[in-house]
TrEMBL record:
InterPro entries: HAD-like_hydrolase, HAD-like_sf, HAD-SF_hydro_IA, HAD_sf
Protein name listed in UniProt: HAD family hydrolase
Biological process terms in GO annotation: small molecule metabolic process
Lineage: Bacteria, Bacillati, Bacillota, Bacilli, Bacillales
The keyword Metal-binding is annotated on this UniProt entry: yes
Gene3D superfamilies xrefs: HAD superfamily/HAD-like, Haloacid dehalogenase hydrolase-like domain
Length: 243
């Protein structure tokens, strides 16, 4: 760090698998979908759910494609078309949203010291529904979603839009996310420092740039902020933005 402090005044977060436990939320939804549509015996039900989760590819497969593949590969009731399954997803998925452990406590600790925002890929109705369901929207000054932004992470345009709405420069903003390319590489090329939440995404060998800090749970973020900015602990959370 060259011995100097990097003044972090704002923090942007990814949403799924960072603030929200997307894997557990989708598993709960998959069980609801199975209750309604799986045409299998009780003994076969766990395998049906497991295959649906595999097909979902951690949320990176489009939902119309997911439900088309589901109908091709898994036995379903009542001659349901993929449109019906998609409509069920739109109706039920948001209610399965759940926070990562410690997310609410972390945001409460950070908010007095930093301007906070979210940058997430996805559809506005789904992503905002998750935020509303989990009750975290009030912590954030900006929520930038790819559908309305017109571009997706790692495109620099979505980061630039969030920074503009937040009123912060890239040099004074830290990005926290779980995806090596969408989050960490995207933040790097947008001029931000980054913290990688090592969760479900493996680090690809072909990604040359590295995060400025790595954590495995959200409670470790305050220490990572101190590491990135060269600060020393000043309180229980060690938060001191100089703002």
């Amino acid at each position: 760090m060259g011995g100097g402090q990097l003044m972090i005044r704002a923090i942007l977060f990814d949403l799924d698998d960072t603030l929200l436990d997307r894997a557990e939320g989708f598993r709960e939804f998959a069980e609801r979908l199975a209750d309604r549509y799986a045409d299998v015996s009780p003994e076969e039900r766990p395998q049906w759910i497991k295959r649906l989760i595999e097909l979902d590819e951690r949320g990176y497969k489009s939902k119309p494609q997911l439900f088309r593949e589901l109908l091709e590969q898994l036995p379903c009731r009542s001659n349901a078309g993929w449109e019906e399954l998609y409509a069920f997803y739109d109706q039920e998925y948001v209610s399965s949203s759940r926070l990562m452990p410690g997310a609410r406590e972390l945001l409460a600790a950070l908010r007095p010291f930093y301007r906070l925002g979210i940058v997430t890929n996805g559809r506005d109705c789904i992503q905002r529904g998750k935020i509303e369901r989990t009750g975290i929207g009030g912590w954030f000054e900006t929520i930038t979603i790819s559908e309305s932004a017109g571009c997706k992470k790692p495109h620099p345009g979505i980061f630039a839009r969030a920074l503009s709405q937040l009123g912060s420069s890239p040099e004074q903003t830290l990005f926290v996310g779980d995806h090596p390319v969408n989050d960490i590489q995207g933040a790097y090329f947008s001029g931000m420092k980054s913290v990688w939440l090592k969760h479900s995404q493996p680090w690809p060998n072909e990604t040359a740039m590295l995060p400025d800090a790595v954590i495995t749970e959200l409670s470790q973020l305050p220490a990572a902020i101190r590491l990135v900015s060269g600060q020393t602990a000043a309180s229980e959370y060690g938060l001191s933005s100089g703002a």
